[in-house]
Design brief:
By secondary structure, this protein is α+β, with helices and mostly antiparallel strands. It is 60% helix and 18% strand. It is elongated and about 65 Å long.
Amino acid sequence: MDISLEKIDTVVARTSATFKEAKEALEKTDGNVVEAIILIEDNQTSWTDNMSDKGERMVDKVKEILRKGNATKITVKKDGEIIMNIPVNAAALGTIISAPLALVGVGTALLSKCTIEIQKEDGEVININNLMEKDNEDNH
């Protein structure tokens, strides 16, 4: 099996893979550049689909809680700092809130250090990320 720097460079140039990922893909495909590129593309597509799915599930979870009522605001935090505060009122539950929620959900899925919290009228704070983790544990 011949894995040269030239082959690694070719795989890196054709994908967004790191040198390590390119080398590992070439090792798995016995040095075949085309097969290594296909392997990396398949893995990248799977990751993107997974992140998109997680974002959609997160948006659905937020919408479900909002439909139940008594929510006053949605807070998005990263490393403990508030990035976005979205006040929730009866008018916002319709289409006005849908677009920002979709962006927040996908963005949060991609930035795993972000958390989404929903504050209810009684002061209770619901952490959407914790609910998502609990759902994942229940499904596995």
